[in-house]
Amino acid sequence: MNITTLEQRIDRLLSALFRYVEKAALVAIGGFALIGIGQAVFAIHIQGEVLLQDLLLMFIFIEIMAMANVYFQRHTVPFTYPMLIAVTALSRLIVLQGKNVSLNLVYESGAILLVTIAILVMRFSDRYRNIEDGD
User: What domain range includes position 10?
Assistant: First the structure.
């Protein structure tokens, strides 16, 4: 057996190992997101009221589960999914601060604006690239 063949076998073995570890991690992430939703629902039950911050938290968990699902279907995650989760998380942070106006509010709002612009740039660049590829 030559070195190239041995190297190729090791590469295939490691690739398969990483693929299974990746899938196991995604299943764990989806499971933890589901547990998080359950905990949020339980907290709402204990509080006796539904707050906007609770809904945003559940929405973050749902987006995480959707991102894992998309990976299993397409074997890739669009770059915009984590960015959408970031926008929701930043929005939740603003809601948690309540009516206290501080400089942090400006920074967090600016971060939402920057991430939103980045999402738009990514989406338009994907569409533009697809139009060029079609010609």
Answer: 3-134
